[in-house]
Amino acid sequence: MEPVNIGLLGLGTVGGGTVTVLTRNAAEIARRAGRDIRIAHAAARAYDQERISGIEAIGRITDDAFAVVDDPKVDIVIELIGGYSPARELVLRAIDNGKHVVTANKALIALHGNEIFAAAQEKGVTVAFEAAVAGGIPIIKALREGLAANHIEWIAGIINGTGNYILTEMRDKGRDFGDVLAEAQALGYAEADPTFDVEGIDAAHKLTILGSLAFGIPLQFDKTFTEGISRIEPQDVAFAAELGYRIKHLGITRRTDAGIEMRVHPTLIPHRRLIANVDGVMNAVLVKGDAVGPTLYYGAGAGALPTASAVVADVVDVARALTTDPTNRVPHLAFQPDEITDTPVLPIDEVETAYYLRLTALDRPGVMAGIAGILGEEGISIEAIKQKEPAPGETHVPLIMLSHRVKEARMNRALARIEALEAVSGEIVRIRMEGLDG
Amino acid sequence: MEPVNIGLLGLGTVGGGTVTVLTRNAAEIARRAGRDIRIAHAAARAYDQERISGIEAIGRITDDAFAVVDDPKVDIVIELIGGYSPARELVLRAIDNGKHVVTANKALIALHGNEIFAAAQEKGVTVAFEAAVAGGIPIIKALREGLAANHIEWIAGIINGTGNYILTEMRDKGRDFGDVLAEAQALGYAEADPTFDVEGIDAAHKLTILGSLAFGIPLQFDKTFTEGISRIEPQDVAFAAELGYRIKHLGITRRTDAGIEMRVHPTLIPHRRLIANVDGVMNAVLVKGDAVGPTLYYGAGAGALPTASAVVADVVDVARALTTDPTNRVPHLAFQPDEITDTPVLPIDEVETAYYLRLTALDRPGVMAGIAGILGEEGISIEAIKQKEPAPGETHVPLIMLSHRVKEARMNRALARIEALEAVSGEIVRIRMEGLDG
After folding, report:
1. Does residue A230 surpass a pLDDT of 80?
2. Of B281, B311, B263, whose CA–CA distance to B197 is shortest?
3. Which of A79, A219, B39, B121 lies in disulfide reach of A103, CB 3.0 to 4.6 Å?
């Protein structure tokens, strides 16, 4: 069979990894795909052109990315430049030229996926993006194909390795957030500007994609609620552990009667859940389907070779589909384009979860009764209370409460009233909880 | 698009689950697949015909399975009868009639898959078998497609739920094997004849399939080494825990320079590994690829609806491929048929693992030196030794040793010599160990 000709945009970390995988495993990949895959044309900055190994496997190299997407010899364009522009323009031009596209660009898909998929649909080409979510874990394939028989109920994922590394270090060593982050930056695990990772924006990009795939809704990044981990304190990690929980930064999407939840935030989960034991930079996605029950997918969520693993798997998939009738291909968002529905995404106020609450309250009779009274009036029931001993000379004590499930708006009202109590000092720490059991 | 017509063979547990999933999720599945899937013709025993719910969704029902595979209206035959015969004859006749086949029959694929795939290849049809390994977990899709870029190094899986349930109960509650098995049988988790599950035959069927998919070798069930869990004692579970290990019944296949290992046996694994925390009836498969690193796939390995989830996903896949050029489809065993190689499967004597050893030895000076001397002569190094206190009035003590990696044949020689020592009483308990870390 004819070889497949790749046009590769970007020879940075993932681009370099892709060259490595395509060259090192060329024979084995061809044994599977039934044809050779060769990089016919690549575009890279001069800096990357000099440092890339395996460059001799690349047919032609340029610094003009548009020359690659316009090259008539190229069958499949791999976009590994990242960011919105010129990635968006390049991908749209490749589509317009009738080429299939493989991308690892989560931000691009989360924000411009609807436009890109519509263009691809019209041209009868495929845009594959396995590498955009959870790196090497084939979670998009699992959702779109492996679980195609299921009514998906919810997904909860650890989909940012940097955040999970920080939380794991905080738990294992009792360290604080800023300390671990500084070290992670020094070691190169975290970016110089860590906002995307620790504030949950990167996870929200990925969750936006997962939610669309699970529920057949358009990509709506702007409706995904995002809360980071930068305010998690070592004492909350420790109190959670005492109560049998771990704190993970989860992306959660759930179908409810009222609409679809899309939210990224720190979450207490029971320590016996498998996903609670996913540590360090590893990612995992837990999917609950009505037929299959819970399934979990675990692996490296980033890195040159793991991400390249997903990129190249997409290339093999797309190569196989080159002769397929486009209407029989797996749809971009798992559901046929005319079957995407506008089920509303719930604002966070309408989302129902349980809560871990930590108050600092005066250690004096009657205080607890006042707090309990407000919670009762707001219809919030408490599952557990833990009062710590006051430190010597301290008049205030930490008070930990675990609530049953309640709407966020109602909890906000109750917390505002409790914070207004004279006996309660400072802001109440509030971390959402999920049982992840059904 | 035209609906897809299914011929369904068997309306027992999984057949009933398949009818449930196809009817309950019909709309959602059609939104994904772009066409309706309907059960045009089903064959079942009279007993099953009476108890099945959703039977009104089935076009025509018969007790003659051959009538279904000969029905010209049927596009895809789903074989859920189980066993070797007449399943094999039915599948081959369906293929001969030019129909695609979906099966959950692990025994059939492990023993007759080579013949079946060759026939399918010749006829240009697909035989899909996702449900044959690890129930609802889309592990076959992950191996064949999601990890297609990787040189697979090894796979280790908990692929029998009954065995994992028994080992979990033994660990959590200190119970003994026979006791838990009897309860599992009473609860319906274990078969009246538990041999297939507890002696590892069922797991070996599944491992045979995983090994072929990972390494591109023919299915060779007869070369898969199998050791069950019926001889695991509560004290070994407890000693393993003290040393930081859990005992799991694993199917392991690994590529080495000398050949491919294929083995099912109880295995000590470090308790911090994610797969060590897969408990109860759940399954998990850990796959190590050279690019992606370790990835793990977790979920229900059996049961009506989880298995049906995999069956129906295969139906959607096959339906999508109906118009594909057969040479572009995903090959049955992951590698193109002419790329299947005859890499030898290693006999267990040639397999290298670490070992947990439990001896019962006279509590007397010099005994340990004698044992250590034999191990040293055989070139076996010991990583840890733990000697227990003798029970009051006992002259013998349990002696636990963890060895470094060594070939099985060499360990067998050493153990035979140690068992012959006068100071050592009875048989030495030997459980293989794996780090599963690289």
Report:
1. yes
2. B281
3. A79
Number of Cβ atoms within 10 Å of the Cβ of A271: 14
* Measured torsion, CA atoms of residues A319, A323, A329, A333, in degrees rounded to the nearest 10: 50
* CATH class for the region spanning B4-128: alpha beta
CB B306, CB B161: distance < 8 Å: no
B293:A313 CB<8 A: no
Right CATH number for A352-433 from 3.40.50.2000, 3.30.70.260, 3.90.1150.10, 2.40.110.20? 3.30.70.260
Sequence-separated (6 or more) residues with CB below 8 Å from residue A14: A80, A104, A131, A304, A307, A308, A311
Q: Is B162 marked within a binding site?
A: no
3-class DSSP assignment, residue B421: coil
Q: What distance in Å separates residue B412's CA from the closest CA in chain A?
A: 36
Smallest Cα distance from B149 to chain A, Å: 5
How far lies A378's CA from each of A199, A349, A413, in Å? 30, 15, 8
Query: What is the C-alpha end-to-end distance of chain A, expressed in Å?
Result: 47
Question: How is residue A9 written in tokens?
Answer: 């945009």
ipTM (interface predicted TM): 0.97
Which of A274, A332, A338 to mutate to probe the B interface, most B CBs <10 Å? Answer: A274
- The vertex-B77 CA angle with B72 and B81, nearest 5°, equals 130
Choose from B298, B322, B338 for mutation: most chain A CBs within 10 A: B298
User: Where does A139-300 sit in CATH, by number?
Assistant: 3.30.360.10
CA distance B430 to B132: 31
The CA distance from A351 to B13, in Å, is 37
DSSP string of A311-333, one letter each residue: HHHHHHHHHHGGGS-GGGSPPTT
Tell me: the pLDDT tens digits for B10-64? 999 999 999 999 999 999 999 999 999 999 999 998 877 777 777 788 999 999 9
Structure confidence at residue A438 as a pLDDT band (50, 70, 90): low
Q: Which helix or strand (DSSP H or E) is residue B376 part of?
A: helix B367-377
Clarify whether A407 is annotated catalytic.
no
Fold entry, domain B350-433: Alpha-Beta Plaits (3.30.70)
Least Cα separation, residue A153 to chain B (angstroms):
13
